[in-house]
């Protein structure tokens, strides 16, 4: 009896001693005391965790892992124990075991840190080999959709289109459709050219359904996206398959150059084109978008085997653009969009808190991004004129985020105090809240100058509400004769139309009744069926050849200057950005591109004889944190090191060295950085060297060599 009491007392003393040593950061003393305690009290789970801490603080990771593992065995749901166990196992290089521990943590308490670690570990342990999928498989590229949903809680027009088509395609068991991302997470290395991350269809469907719901918590949505990315598999589209650029083909990870290798591999490339407004109406767009979109549409026209457009107006504009630039004819079909939001409208609408002051009042709604092209100022000026005439105008509701080129609009709103309080602006509304706004309005307006489709017009009709809209571009394709049209350049005409809608109640009621009797809404199922049917009609057509070579003496510039004016015809026939066969680089900036990681590879196709030797000219730069590192450049065709230089010697400098053309006529280089470097804490990218431009010439071609020297020294404004 005395020995038991003595044992309990000694154990309690050991526990207390361990805590005291821990608080004093005496880690050896804490480890000894805690170890004595758990030897006689093996079920004391919290002390096993404390023992793990004491071992870990001394760098004794194996012992720490054993202690944490015991704590987890005693309580598998202990988040803290699992998290520390995962961290130690990761540091010990036990990836599979660490992954399991992080997954247990995330199952109990989802958090961003655990998801990031899970993603990294799965990239290392479960995604080492790409699955090849060929004939009969249709891939949708959705990188831009994921990027958008990470940044925004609600979907805009293009995202709604992607979600609607994807939802139908997933639910159709007769279709072998997959969804691919070009990158997963900010910390992962790029995949080899031609490979992608394939997300699970069921998870993809859950993301779409949640993002389309009436109440969307952004952190929950982001966690769902991360989980979807986390379980993605590596995939390589093979000959006979089809890749469709479903969203923003001009950037956001879904750009055309991402899919060039797939095209070379015999994969058919299709795209859904919404509009080409940045090239037909650049005055309504940001300068940087005009520059990038112009190059992207040229690249798409060279690469695509077929194109689907959202309206006949867009198809006509695209065909005219190709003809103006002497391009090859591309098979095209129109797949009109749906008339309503991604989620079906129902009675359970939710009135938005942002518009509490409007509830119960008579109002007119304009649902659209607030930007110059959408012509909101037209409506404001019409209301001002009607107010001046003594018309009892309804309240105005603008629903949408602020975009570009709205300086004149904001000036008027400031000067008039939002039309004397009659204008109300809301943004980031859920689909249910948008349904409520549409359902309660007297009528809607959509006075845009130019559109690819005009979804808000269809949404209004779908909710049974009359609409006043522009008579330009594709908008009449959406509204037919159910809409009252105005000329967006003729304010006087618009004022008359608005006056009638506001003051003539019988006329407004007749327009409402006409919609009720005659409107037949096009659903997302209709779009999905039509879309996939049109895709199938193009999948047996010949694949258009893509021949890309950097010509001798031409300098291929990676530099991107926002607002640069592009010589469209020249770029249409000299597609510089498509020449770089690599995924080991980040987006272009004014200096060029940052190469990804410490061992990036690039390949440039040439028209040189295989086995011949050329001089290659490369303009390089380095980061401040790479000043202590050294760069070697490997010629992969010959297997030799051609350059070895300290990074502190490079600051936008051009270097020249001989390389061998490989058996496919390609220059293949690997840049190898030796020495430690640490990227800034506020930048998740991994880079230390930059590439500004590249070119080549035969040793005896002095004219081409001189041309390269000049173009790499002077800024080329002709793109």
Entry summary:
The protein has 719 residues and is an alpha/beta fold.
Q: What about the largest sheet?
A: 9 strands, mixed
The percent range for strand residues is 15-25%
Distance between the termini: 91 Å
- The CATH architecture designation of the largest domain is 3-Layer(aba) Sandwich
Number of domains: 4
Overall average residue pLDDT: 87
Count of beta strands: 24
The dominant shape is: globular
Please tally the helical runs, counting DSSP H or I stretches of 4 or more residues. Answer: 26
CATH topology of the largest domain: Rossmann fold
In angstroms, what is the radius of gyration? 31 Å
Quaternary structure state of the chains depicted: single chain
Q: Would you tell me the structural class of the helices and strands?
A: alpha/beta
- How are strands sequenced across the largest beta sheet? 1-5-4-3-2-6-7-8-9
CATH class of the largest domain: Alpha Beta
Unreliable parts: 1-7
Describe the structure.
By secondary structure, this protein is an alpha/beta fold. The chain has four domains: 2-125, Tetratricopeptide repeat domain (Serine Threonine Protein Phosphatase 5, Tetratricopeptide repeat, Alpha Horseshoe); 131-334, Rossmann fold, CATH 3.40.50; 353-519, Rossmann fold, CATH 3.40.50.2000; 556-713, Jelly Rolls (Sandwich). It is 42% helix and 17% strand. Helix 20 (455-462) links the parallel strand 13 and strand 14 (467-470). Helix 5 (79-91) runs antiparallel to helix 6 (95-108) and helix 6 packs antiparallel against helix 7 (112-125). The protein starts with a helix and ends in a 6-residue tail after the last helix.
């Amino acid at each position: 009896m005395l020995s038991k009491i003595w044992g309990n007392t000694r154990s309690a003393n050991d526990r207390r001693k361990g805590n005291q040593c821990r608080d004093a950061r005496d880690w050896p003393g804490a480890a000894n005391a805690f170890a004595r305690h758990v030897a006689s009290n093996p079920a004391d789970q919290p002390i096993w965790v404390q023992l793990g801490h004491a071992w870990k603080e001394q760098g004794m990771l194996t012992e720490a892992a054993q202690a944490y593992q015991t704590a987890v065995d005693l309580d598998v749901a202990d988040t803290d124990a699992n998290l520390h166990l995962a961290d130690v196992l990761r540091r010990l290089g036990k990836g599979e075991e660490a992954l399991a521990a992080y997954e247990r943590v995330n199952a109990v308490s989802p958090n961003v840190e655990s998801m990031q670690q899970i993603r990294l570990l799965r990239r290392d342990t479960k995604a080492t080999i790409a699955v090849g999928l060929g004939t009969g498989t249709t891939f949708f590229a959705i990188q831009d959709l994921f990027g958008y949903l990470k940044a925004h809680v609600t979907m805009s027009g293009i995202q709604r289109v992607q979600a609607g088509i994807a939802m139908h395609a997933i639910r159709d068991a007769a279709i072998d459709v997959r969804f691919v991302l070009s990158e997963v997470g900010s910390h992962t290395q790029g995949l080899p050219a031609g490979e992608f991350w394939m997300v699970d269809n069921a998870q993809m469907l859950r993301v779409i359904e949640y993002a389309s719901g009436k109440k969307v918590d952004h952190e929950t949505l982001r966690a769902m996206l991360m989980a979807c990315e986390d379980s993605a598999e590596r995939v390589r589209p093979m000959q006979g398959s089809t890749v469709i650029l479903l969203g923003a083909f001009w950037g956001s990870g879904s750009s055309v150059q991402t899919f060039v290798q797939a095209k070379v591999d015999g994969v058919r490339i299709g795209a859904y084109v919404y509009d080409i407004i940045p090239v037909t109406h650049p005055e309504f767009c940001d300068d940087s978008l005009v520059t990038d979109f112009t190059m992207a549409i040229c690249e798409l026209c060279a690469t695509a085997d077929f194109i689907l457009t959202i309206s006949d107006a867009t198809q006509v504009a695209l065909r005219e653009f190709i003809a103006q630039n002497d391009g090859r004819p591309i098979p095209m079909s129109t797949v009109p969009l749906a008339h309503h939001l991604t989620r079906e409208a129902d009675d359970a609408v939710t009135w938005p808190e942002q518009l509490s002051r409007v509830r119960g009042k008579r109002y007119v709604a304009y649902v659209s991004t607030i930007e110059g092209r959408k012509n909101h100022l037209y409506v404001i000026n019409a209301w001002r004129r009607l107010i001046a005439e003594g018309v009892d105008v309804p309240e105005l509701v603008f629903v949408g985020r602020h975009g570009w080129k709205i300086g004149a609009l904001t000036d008027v709103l400031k000067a008039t105090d939002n039309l004397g309080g009659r204008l109300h602006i809301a943004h980031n509304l859920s689909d249910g809240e948008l349904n409520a706004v549409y359902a309660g309005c007297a009528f809607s307006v959509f006075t845009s100058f130019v559109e690819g489709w005009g979804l808000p017009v269809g949404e209004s009709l779908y909710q049974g509400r009359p609409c006043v809209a522009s008579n330009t571009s594709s908008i009449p394709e959406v509204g037919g004769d159910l809409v009252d049209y105005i000329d967006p350049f003729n304010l006087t005409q618009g004022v008359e139309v608005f006056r009638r809608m506001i003051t003539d109640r019988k006329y407004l009621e007749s327009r409402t009744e006409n919609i009720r009797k005659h409107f037949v809404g096009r659903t997302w199922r209709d779009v999905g069926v039509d879309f996939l049917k049109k895709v199938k009609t193009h999948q047996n057509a010949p694949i258009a050849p893509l021949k890309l070579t950097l010509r001798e003496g031409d300098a291929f510039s990676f530099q991107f200057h926002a607002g640069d004016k592009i010589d469209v015809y020249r770029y249409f026939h000299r597609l510089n950005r498509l020449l770089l066969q690599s995924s080991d680089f980040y987006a272009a900036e004014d200096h060029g591109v940052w190469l990804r990681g410490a061992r990036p590879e690039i390949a440039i196709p040439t028209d040189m004889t295989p086995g011949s030797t050329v001089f290659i000219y490369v303009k390089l730069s380095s980061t401040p944190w790479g000043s202590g590192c050294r760069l070697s450049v490997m010629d992969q065709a010959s297997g030799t090191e051609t350059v070895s230089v300290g990074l502190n010697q490079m600051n936008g400098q051009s270097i020249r060295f001989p390389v061998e053309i490989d058996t496919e006529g390609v220059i293949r280089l690997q840049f190898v950085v030796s020495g430690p470097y640490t990227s800034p804490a506020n930048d998740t990218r991994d880079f230390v060297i930059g590439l500004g431009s590249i070119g080549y010439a035969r040793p005896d071609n002095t004219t081409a060599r001189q041309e390269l020297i000049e173009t790499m020294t002077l800024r080329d404004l002709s793109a």
